[in-house]
Target: Allantoate amidohydrolase
Amino acid sequence: MWRDLLPVGRNAATGGYRRHAWTPADADCRAWFEREARDRGLWYEADRNGNQWAWLGDPADGNAVVTGSHLDSVPDGGAYDGPLGVVSAFAAVDALRRRGAVAGRPLAVVNFTEEEGARFGVACLGSRLMTGVADPAAARALTDSGGVTLAEAMERAGHDPSALGRDDERLARVGVFVELHVEQGRRLAGTPHPVGVGSAIWPHGRWRLDFPGVADHAGTTLMEDRRDPMPGYAATVLAARESATRMGGLATFGRLRVAPNGTNAIASLVTAWLDCRAPDADTLEDLVAGIAAVAEAAGAEITAESGTPLVTFDRPLRVRLARILGGAPPLPTGAGHDAGVLASAVPTAMLFVRNPTGVSHSPHEHAEEADCLAGVSALTRVLTDLLADDPSEPAQCEPGPPGGS
Ligand code: HGY
Ligand code: MN
Ligand code: MN
Model:
């Protein structure tokens, strides 16, 4: 599976991946998923929101055990963020079948679309639409950097965008969701544990900041006559860094658009995207308010693009997973996941596979093969245990708090 995925959407210059939703690279990833499903004799479908499913057993039986992740990437992302969860899910299905451990409950592997929000700006768009957290009309109108709407992009990729939206029928079939993911930090490095159990996801969100200016000549406009948006933007970046450090949160400006983007022209508009995260909702709110105040003083207009509240994964399920895995440690994370969105609707858990450097969202992201195999084995044990539940009994777990807005 890794060999087949290796060249898909790979940027030869950096070694990173550019697998943005509904692009040709994404189509190749989707074709790969469908092939993996069909080659195993699993029942394949793409849902109304474009998420892909591979079923073992009859979905109509309900109370399904679902596992999977995403195949899309950030610009120049690593190989593991997303695909590790999907590859491990298929590998776990193979292991379960080898052991004859497939029981009464249906089992599905899922690939959620546009998890990174790298093309249309809203992270976890596929799972947000499915759970009704994202508005379908607003989603259809989202545009990429070239002005292409999500609706147009989906149509071009052969997927009808008219039926986007909350999918209660599908949600009702899911009894439990477990997402395996590469760790995006170094908490497991240096411990004897190749796998941890997700405990919580920090509240986080994305904001667009538009700093307006007036274009003029770099060589003739006096410094005092300029209406240059760049210094206001720069002051905001420095304020974000200082406040996040002081408050124990995280603030990142990783994407910037400058118009008209000329070396010898004062900018007429600077658009910057803020990614902000904190251990609790109050800290996040205070952090963003402080950054926004600096930006607004520089004349910026601020638009919230997506937000995800604190997610605490289902406690009984976490305890159960840690027990199955012989005391795998609990891991909180600042990274968002579809599991965080699903947690508002169904009992949900996460497994993290050790990342020796902690690096992620980078071509240098890495996981050792032995740890990846330990991840597959852990997922297989977890799925075996969950599948053994009486299919007539819903899972004895409580869904978490609402998953996002
Ligand atoms: O950006 C994130 O938190 C993620 O990796 N989707
Ligand atoms: Mn990611
Ligand atoms: Mn991911």
Notes: Confidence is low (pLDDT under 50) at residues 400-405. The pocket of manganese (II) ion (ligand 2) is lined by residues 74, 81, 116, 361 (CB under 6 Å). The CA atoms of residues 219 and 264 lie 7 Å apart.
